[in-house]
Amino acid sequence: MNFKSRTYWLFLLPTLLALLLVLIIPFFQGVYYSFTEYNGFQVTGFVGLDNYIKLFSDEQFLYSLGFTGAFSLASVIGINVIGLAFALLVTQKLGKASTFFRTVYFMPNLIGGIILGFIWQFVFLKAFTGISEVTGLEFFRGWLADTETGFWGLVILFVWQMSGYIMVIYISFLNNVPQELLEAATIDGANKWQSFWKVKFPLIIPAFTVSLFLTLSNAFKVYDQNMALTGGGPFGSTEMTTMNIYDTAFKVQEMGYAQSKAIVFLIVITLISVIQLYFTRKKETEL
Q1: Which of 15, 124, 153, 215 has the least C-beta neighbours within 10 A?
Q2: CATH architecture classification, 59-286
Q3: What is the rounded distance in angstroms from the CA atom of residue 76 to the CA atom of residue 68?
């Protein structure tokens, strides 16, 4: 082994060791615990597939899966539409204002989920109630006390947090669109909408692959925003799957059962992500 190879492995080994200790070993431990009765301290028995059979009759877990799926769908659409709109806005010739808007739009992504949850809790509980009292509109009253408005509250929070991050991805692709193509389209009589739809949009399709994957995976993993904003209420109607798994593990102390839920949730996320990547990459090749 020459010096170059030794240096390569010297720098690579710490990363491989971290992955082994933090990801790979805990993953296989979790798979093992999902087949047992485990309370966080000791394994009290091996139950085989009982945990998995039990979760398919767990109404709250199944409801949380459906709620998380609906939340993810609404969030992915909102984030990508608004993120692309922001990107189109800040890539116009706005001078120094462009940098200002980029900074403002990206800032929510720098705020932690817990803090974001409390910020929007104040907005929905205090600001909205104040608006309702001034205007007399009942629409703004009790947003977090109702399942439907609580759902949209979570969506608004997550879209506000992630849109600026996704904007950066779209900006990088929009900046790589050849100006010659846009100038040729203008000479041929294309208006701004036609230039975007016929020239820019096909060239930024790869950005959708990246952005959809990131927004999907992050939407399914939401926990701290859910805990801070609604706490799963009212009566568990806004409880997302991550919160359901956490409560099963640390409140009920059924960690083996919680692990089986986590494994099923992992499989669901993986399947959805693979399907999404397949269709978006297929669209790339078609265009």
Answers
A1: 15
A2: Orthogonal Bundle (1.10)
A3: 12
